[in-house]
Write a structure and sequence with these properties.
About 30% of the residues lie in helices and about 20% in strands. The protein is built from 16 helices and 24 strands. The strands form four sheets. The protein has an eight-stranded parallel beta sheet with strand order 9-15-16-17-18-19-20-21. InterPro entries: Amidohydro_3, Metal-dep_hydrolase_composite, Metal_Hydrolase, YtcJ-like.
Amino acid sequence: MHPRHATRVLAVGLLAGTAVLAAPAIAQAPTGAPAASPAASSAPAAAARTADTILVNGKIVTVDDRFTIVPALAIAGERIVATGSTADVEALKTPQTRVIDLGGKTVIPGLIDNHAHYMRAAEYWDREVRLDGITSRQEALAMIAAKAKASQPGELVLSLGGWSEEQFTDQPGGFTKAELDAAAPNNPVVLQVIYFRIYANSLALKALGVTAETPDPRNGKIEKDANGQPTGVLNGGGAVAWTLGRLGEVAKERSVENARALMRDLNRMGITAYQEMGGRAFNAGHLEAFRTVWERKQMTVRAFYNIWQEPTSAEGVDKALAVIAGLKPFQGDDWLDHTGYGETVYFPLHDNLLARGASPTPENMAQWRRIAQAVADKGMHLNVHAQLRGTIEAFLTEIEAINAVKPIKGLRWTMSHGDQLEPQDIARMKRLGMHVQLHSRPTVQGALMLKVHGDRTYAMPPLRLVQDSGIPWGLGSDATAVTPVNPFYTLHWAVTGEMVGGRKVLKETITREEALIAHTRSNAAFLFQDGNLGSLAPGKYADLVVLDRDYLTVPASQIKDLKPVMTMVGGKVVHETK
């Protein structure tokens, strides 16, 4: 029967059965967050006479400015029209209203990733084996073998990052050519480790044209054995770029379907919106695939993108300035829109988390300033990639000079990553009206960071310092190459300080309430969607996630294992576990 012809009662995550619409006592909020009360609850909005959907009998964590927790919520069209008591919400019910009985389950706002590279990743999404969160090397090999078995002979089996050798607890380390040949005897296999290494099997080396005589790529090295034969390991950023540049083009329609598939996977993990940051080798085709999905009204994740160019010389900057002059943000809608410029401004100053330091030259800073000044003159938002002390300080000095000429307050200029931020940096940023994005790269890079930065790693990034400073900030991933995609890995790391595999790599942790706010309500600001997203409040879009367990009470070690049983975007169910 069609939902508009009869009231529907659904038990989330349960098989067929009778759902009972009992109104439970309101769940208590965690320490430091107020519980729901009649005063804190939102009565049905005056303009809302009826609801299309209501959620009852749950623990709805609204993440509003009081962190209110209520048992029920009502939706009309794409937006929330009421939160509060079961009686208040059921007053909006009609015979056509869909009723979802939560059965006591916890609901949180849809998770927003403030910094990711999904459009680029979508191109080969159907070929990927994501090793995110896998702590067994043997299990990783079994996944590669399963993907190969499910593929046609000769089809590529690929992993474009999101993992590291250090996350394996049974046998840390990479993969040999022989192991990958055994796992996928009929398929080329290419495994990317962050941005610095490729593991390839024999068929992949053949497809790439790698022989004993192949010269090393620029800024890369093809490793060879004692007999001069390629081992299957290609080291260095140049080798990674060289390899990826030979994967071949993907037909447009396949790219479009891969974009839809990626969004479905993001929904399955609880992501309902994100900010796209382009990335290395990003091209117009990556954006076009998402734009086609948008034109077909098939979006299930809200995507807000920055324009990122990669000038490496003064001539490249000249070309970038011409592009900036023609940019016109905010011409889309609340599903797909252009928000600004960045994260990279001038590529020679794109610092490396695993480097010991950064020393920007005056010549490079002059080129950086040309672009940043043009963005300010255009009145646009800028996102600045900065990780290490040298770049953080140099960029802030230039931004202060730009602000003296063209004030940037209100444009939400943002520093991304900020791994070595210190109190004096935050004070400067607050005076400029800047924001901060912090990211969960230590989930796979933490052990490597300890080798490079020693004990300083335990405050990289300084979550507690930034949280306590009062500067506007948010939590994201920087997926897919340098971190896992799953936002619950990010939340787990922020609360426990542990990387994948359990090693402690961060001591400046935050509470689970602070982490959830940073991954929802706070991140709406980076999308310029404060009034639409980030909390479950009347007037905002009904973007929400129903969890299999309670985020606020499960042991901290289990946060990474939480699973959405239902995800809604704009009041529409886009993922549901049957």
